[in-house]
Amino acid sequence: MAVNNVVHVNECGLPLNAIEWLVKHHQSKAQERGQMIRDLQLKQGSFVVDAGCGPGLWTPLLAQAIGANGNILGIDISTEALVTAQRRSSDTWYSHYVQYKRAALERLPIDYGEADLIFSANVSQYLPDPVATFASMAPYLKQGGRIAIKDIDFGEMHFHGIDAGLQARVFQARERWEWDRIQQGYAYEDSWVGSKLAGYLRAAGFKDVEEKTYRIERRFPLVPNFRFYLQGIAEWFVCEGAPYLSREDMNAWLHCFQSGTCNVMDQEDFMSEETEYVVIGHWDVSRPRYYSDMHIDNARLNHLDS
């Protein structure tokens, strides 16, 4: 998802939701992301909502999975991202059955009971109340429809070739800052959300929740797109002044990724490891009532008023 008016940027001034960074990040993990969509085993002719579609990077993968008789609706709150998505899909083989609309996740521009799948990638980390948001999306699914949430968890990230103590201090400082940063006027963010998603979907009332993990490893020499991705991530860890990290550790961390002579990414023993989560929940309209149903009821009222 591309988020409007994001406050934080990395040390080079690049927001981690900037379209250029999103595109190169996506391309650097094309193999794993293609497998994520294949593992959803979408039926031909399905109607898929890409909730928080950003610049439409997942559209080709979804389109290939559902075929020419399917339909995709991409929604996002960023006009810039939607314009980019529309431009990327124009003159493609799937352009005639893809639409993009500006909308919030809690108020999708479709009828209730219409979607076969709601797919949402790298959005949940920005949701202050993910249970409420997921519960609000549920009524838009058909009976037996599914929601698939894909996101990161930096508790699973590790860089070989960097001092383990330094890594631990950098990661712990960032995690602590994410608990406090909203009180300082920054947007909500939880970059450790991946391992929490299954619990969020169950709390939102989804049944038969499945969690799949995808291990992503890259070794020296790195392809340019993945190097660009890691550069942004490394700088992001110490953005916003890194208030819980010492100045010495910040400088040491940035030196690892910015040095022209001893950049860690140029070392033959360098390896990057991380895990991405895809969590799937099934929707049953006849299920017992949940506390989270208040969010669904509120969503219905808002939908009728719109």
TrEMBL record:
Keyword Transferase appears in the UniProt entry: yes
Spans traversing the lipid bilayer: none
Swiss-Prot/TrEMBL keywords: Methyltransferase, Transferase
First and last residue of the signal peptide: none
Pfam families the UniProt entry points to: Methyltransf_25
Keyword Isomerase (UniProt): no
Name used for this protein in its record: Methyltransferase domain-containing protein
